[in-house]
Each structure stands twice: as structure tokens, then as C-alpha cells.
Amino acid sequence: MNSSISEIDAKVVCYHCGNDCKEEDILEDDKHFCCSGCYTVYDILKDNNLCGYYDLNANAGVSLKAKNFKGKFDYLSEKAIENELLSYQDEQIAKVILSVPSIHCSSCVWLLENFPKILKGVFTSRLNFVKKELSLDFDPNVVSLKEIVELMATLGYEPQINLESTGKLKKIDHETRKLLFKIGVTGFCAGNIMMMSFPEYFNLDLANKLDATYQKFFLYFNFLLALPVFFYGASDYLKGAYYSILENLKGNSNILSVDIPIALGITALFLRSTYETFVPQTAGYWDSMAGLVLFLLVGKWVQTVTFNYLSFDRSYKSYFPLAVKVKNQSANYKNVNELQKGDVFFVHHQELIPTDAILMEGNALIDYSFVTGESNPVKKLKGETVFAGGRQVADQIELLVQKPVSTSYLTQLWNNESFLKEKEIPTTALANAFSKYFTYLTIAIAAAVGIYWKFNNPELIWPAVTAVLMVACPCALTLSLPFTMNTTMSIFGRNKFFVKNQGVIQQLSEIDTMVFDKTGTLTEANHGEVRLVGELSYYEKNLVYGVVSQSVHPLSKLVSSYLQGSNSLEVNYIFEVKGQGIEAIVDGRSVKIGKLDFVKNINAESQNSEVHVMIDNEYKGYFTVEPRFRANWKTLLQKLSKTFTIALLSGDNPRMSETLKPIFGSRMRFNQSPQDKLDYIKQLQNSGSHVMMIGDGLNDAGALRESKIGIALTEDVQAFSPSCDAILDAERIDKLDDYVRFSKTALNIVKLSFLLSVVYNIMGVGWAASGELSPVVAAIFMPLSTLSVVFFSVGLTWLVARYKKMV
């Protein structure tokens, strides 16, 4: 390999990932690489003639700087753990589906689907880009799952393997597949029925016997094509109507399902068309029936298909490791679900503790922000209890299991009734009322029309009554509502606000109270304002900068940014004690930075947001890091407070209460546990408030679940809090008020669609009641009214969004 360190200051970017080659510049084939990891990927692709990867997107790769996978996936060598991940295995083939969240472009798709060319023993590789899942078939005699995962990690596509990976089977969505199959069958039949109905559309004169024979053939053929449409395509609506009527007769419900008027219309179309086909042998309404069912199924599909690449219902298991290294047992690794009281296991730096345990050995510095929201790590001594959900931020520790995972504190929180019961997303009262009264009104009109013609012209009873049932269609509810709401979901998605389903938009419009978390929600998760308490000369700042610029600790990075512009002096020696501080020799001078007890080597208390400095054994002061609020946070809250009651819940201490008091007043609670937050939301809702909770951590999960609407704020839409109803990109929190207002606009558009539908139904029913509505005219009128209502609702939604500059 021909490599060299660049000696020029010109900006050079990595050929693989596009990052600047500041610290290292590896040159190969006239291409620059920022680290050995990126070069390794290029070398692998080059050896397998797969450099076309870079032709699809420039700098398509993922940066591998500072990544070391050695030993990280050793637990996959344990057969018991490997078998839990495999979806199928025999002597010749094994199948696995891996979640790969780092997939981001067409180059990723191209590379991963060419994986068999890179690794011998892999037969097939299929990528679901939307769900970010890779399906692999491989020969277990040639290659192991561990080798596959290690190579994927080397390429920059590290799979997400956690405890939840084994808790659910990777299955195809059979309901969606069944719905699409129904759409296919119904669409095929509808197209052919319309083609066979052309002679009727154009009123062709079929005088001779041969043409008359063809006409009968077309009529009977349409009947045969209509059978699967009625009995298969419309089966869900027919069953829904049947069970709704049954529940009402039993007294279990007093709400008529919207399926009833739909089923009445479809059944009337089928029976009337069957009569027309076999008795007078004239054209029926087969095209109208097939077209109506097709529209309904497409609307149902649009309603069903949401942003399925986002997982709104992640549990705590999705954060926990799949396995941990155990001590003095036959297997080196053990599934965390199998940990029993008395087992001893190891937790490494930055790993999550999966169960309640006692500290046996090591320097334990536990960050509980994942559970409590409190950002300051807690120091634990030998013999003390550490709880599940804490993250070890110092060196490796040895723990003794106190409780199995299933009975830990975090699991008990998750087993709260708020998580066990399914969160209901009902339709609006308007939709229920429309459905109920529309059904009653349709039946009443049909009965009145029948009575009228019985005394005036009995021959028109059957044509008029069936025509009324056919034309009276609640298309505003069955199509306008899902199309409008899904258009709104699409517009929200463009603005990085992702809602779980259309019911969320409806409930969003009913909110009157908003409750905010503080840490990571109103304040930025990984940023802060740095202030120097003490005095440092320009030279001393250069000494400190030389140390902090070498560390990856978040506080060191903040101090390094604060000292930008300083000159980095030569570092002769550096040693970092994880979770405590750094000792270094810089330009021949002794420098210590970190916690007060570490710097002064005494037993002293200091804030975890403070970075103390000692140079040549002389204490110089400290840097303090204050949380930084998100941009426009105050403007947003002031705007919201004019319309909504707003409150604050925080697991952090109240040191910032004076800053927040002018906004929230007395509606602030600090040092709140996850259970406290959940109980507070429950208390508000029991008092009649419609609450929306906005949070970011697992500590907010119970409150998010219990609230009417739970919104998870995140820096990354693929890594957010579980059990939420919507996900909001942190950069767009200042637009929250706009999203709530637009949800009300969407609901008003649905109401206008209802009105338009009523106008169409008055026209259509009046025409049908006269007994003069012919099958051909009905075939044109019904789809036209349905399409116009859908186009009206969708078009108006987009126009309003464009006016509000949301698209």
C-alpha cells in the first residue's frame, strides 16, 4: 500500500465518506482516505470489482474513523445466541434478517445487494430500503453469522442487534399483502367489466342475432367477473356491517359502523345487477359496483400504509444488549433474558446495564439520563446497587445479578397498565355521527320512496329503492377522511414531523394542554454554553486545548470548541481515566483536567458539568457547562401559552427554574421519576384535560404512552423514545404550533368534503327516487362524485399547505 500523511494545508476530502482528511490522509490510486477503515472498505470493493459503488453517489460511504470492532461481536460465536437470531437453519442454509439503520442512499442498496460477491458462502442478499432490513441466505458450513456481521460493520453498515431482535419474528405483513391482492383482483375484474360494457356506454345498435348473442355473453361474463369483486373484494365491508348489526342487536354497542351504508350500497348494486342480467337481460351496474369497491380498497390501502420505516412502539428491549459476557460459566456469553440471580457479568465502557445488580469490581460511573433524565453521572461504590437502564461511562465493571431482567425496575415500569392496554385512537365524534345518521337517513329515504311508488306506480318500487341504496354513498367519510389525513401525514413528513396514523391528526386538533420535558427537549442534548471561572493566560489555554482536543468525552469536546483558535502544543504524554479526567504532559508542562477530586487528588464534591484545571500542580479554576436551550424555544412557548395550558416535567434538578418560571409559572416539577411523570399526566387527564406530552428519553415513555398524544423529540428519526404517537425532528420544534394548527385545518377540510358529499347525495338520491336513473348514467355519476370529493379534499389540503409554506 502506498500511503502518506498529507503535508499540505489544502482541504482534502475522503474518497469513501467525504469527511475532511485532517488527522490522517491515506493516499491510494490517487484517492484520499481519512482513516484506515475507509481505505479498507475501498480495498475490499476494489478486490471484488465493485467500485461501481462510488459511481452511484459521490462519497457514498459511511465514515469508519475511530471504529474498532475487535471482540465486539464475539457473543455471536455462541450457538445458542446465534440460533435465536436466525429465522431458519438446516445443514446447508441459514436465513437471517438484520436491521441496518445506517442505510441512506442508492449506493448502500447496490453494495448490500451485491454482498454475495464480497463474502464467500452468502447465497442471496435482499434489502428492504423502507424498513432498512437486510435478508441474507448463507451456508453455515462456509461462513458464520459473526463473520457476516463483522464484515458489514467494517463496510460501515453495522447491524442493530439488541434484545428485541429475538423477541419478535420477522414476518411479512400478511394483512397488507392480502389487501394488495384484493386490489389486484378487483382492479382486474373492474377493468374487464368496463371493457365488456363498451357497447352499452356507446348505445350500439345490436340488431343482428350474432351481435345479440355477443351482448348476452358480455352480460353473463360481467356477472362472473363481478362474483370475486362482491364475495372477495368487498368481504371486509360485508363482514363489518354484519358484525356491527349483530353487536347492536345484542346491546353491546349503540354506534352503527360506517360499513353498513357501504355494504347496503354494494349489496343493492349486486342484487339489482343480477336481476337486470338474468330477467330483462339488460346491462346492470357491474361496472359501478366494481369501481366503487376498487376505490374503497385503494382508500383503505392509503390509510393503512403510513411511514412504516419508523417504529413507534419500541420497548426497552430495543435499547438493551442481546448478550453479556459472564464470569466462570461454560459459555463466555449469555442472553440477558437468561441471567439469573447470582450470575456475575461484565459491562464495558458506554454499555447499558440490562438488569438490577450489585457492583463487585471496578470504577462505576453510571449515567442514568436514559431512565431519569438527569444528565449527571452517579458514582457507585463496591457493594452498591446499580439499576437497569444506566450506562457505564467509565472503565469495565463487574456486576452480580440481583434480579432477572423480567423483574428489574425498568421492566416493572414497562409493565405499568399504561403500556399493557392498547392506546385507543377513535375516529372523531363528527365521523361517528355522520356514519350513524347517514345509515338511518338512507334507509328512511329508501323506505319512503318504496311507499310512494307502491301507491303511484308499483313497477318502479324495485328500481327506485335499489337505485337510492346504490347512489347514497358515504364517500366523504370512507374516502375523503383517509385521503385528507394521509395527505396531511405526507405534508407533515416533508416537514420532519411523523405521525403514527390518521387518528393522531384528529386527536391533535383536540389538545388543550401541553407538557414538556426539559433535558434534551427544551435544551439541546449534546451542546452547552461553556464559561471559564478563573484565569488562564493565552499560553495556558494552549496547554489545555492540547489536552481536550485529544479526548472524545462530551465535556472535553465542548471545552475544545470554546478554546477554538488556540494553538495545539506538542503532547508528550496523555492518560485518560474514564469518567474522572485526563493527565498529560504538554510542551514539557504537567496538565490535569477533570473532576475536582481527580485534579486535586482529594475527597471533594464538584458538579459533573464542571471541568477543573491544574497546571504544574497549581489550581487554575474550572470550565462550567450550562445546558443550551434550543433556538426560538421562548418564542414557541409564548405563542403556545396563548392557546394552550403548558407545563414542565423534568427528571433534572431545579437549578434552571428561575429561567423557566416566567414561561411556566408554578406549573413546573423537577426531580421527577418516570413513575412521577406518568402519574402527573394521568392526573391531568382525569381532571378532563386533553394532554400532549413532548419528551425525548425512555424516562418519558410512560408519560408519552399515557397522554392523549405523545410526541418524541429526536436528533435522529431512527433513534427515538418508544410508545409515542408522533416523532418530531429536534430542528423543527419551533414549528410545533404550526403543525397543531394545520391538523385543525385538515379536519375542517374533511367537514367541507362532508358538505360536498351531502350535495352530491341530494342530487343523486333525488334522481334515483324518480325511478329514471339508468345503469349507464349511474355508472358515470357514482365514480364521478367519488373522485370529485377525493380530489377536492386532497387538492385543498395541498393548496392550504402551500399557502402556509409547508410544501
CATH class of the largest domain: Alpha Beta
Helical segment tally? 27
Distance between the termini: 50 Å
Q: How many strand units?
A: 28
Strand order of the largest sheet: 16-28-27-26-17-24-25
Share of helical residues: 40-55%
- The structure class reads alpha+beta
Radius of gyration of CA atoms, rounded to a whole number: 33 Å
> Taking all residues together, what is the mean pLDDT?
77
In terms of DSSP E residues, the strand content is 15-25%
Major sheet characteristics: 7 strands, mixed
Key phrases:
6-stranded antiparallel β-sheet; single chain; alpha+beta; Alpha-Beta Plaits; 6 domains; disordered N terminus; 807 residues; 28 strands
Describe the secondary-structure layout.
Elements: E1 26-28, E2 31-33, H1 36-47, H2 53-56, H3 79-85, E3 88-89, E4 94-99, H4 106-113, H5 115-118, E5 122-128, E6 133-138, H6 145-154, H7 174-196, H8 198-201, H9 209-233, H10 235-250, H11 259-278, H12 286-304, E7 323-326, E8 333-335, E9 344-347, E10 357-361, E11 364-367, E12 378-380, E13 385-386, E14 391-392, E15 397-401, H13 409-414, H14 417-420, H15 429-456, H16 461-471, H17 475-494, E16 497-499, H18 502-508, E17 513-517, E18 523-534, H19 538-548, H20 554-562, E19 571-577, E20 581-586, E21 589-594, H21 596-600, E22 610-615, E23 618-629, H22 633-641, E24 645-649, H23 657-664, E25 668-669, H24 674-686, E26 691-695, H25 701-706, E27 709-714, E28 726-729, H26 736-769, H27 775-803
Parallel strand pairs: 17-24, 17-26, 24-25, 26-27, 27-28
Antiparallel strand pairs: 1-2, 3-4, 4-6, 5-6, 7-8, 7-9, 9-15, 10-13, 10-15, 11-12, 11-14, 16-28, 18-23, 19-20, 20-21, 21-22, 22-23
Helix pairs in contact: 7-9, 7-12, 9-11, 9-12, 10-11, 11-12, 11-16, 12-17, 12-27, 15-16, 16-26, 17-18, 17-26, 17-27, 26-27
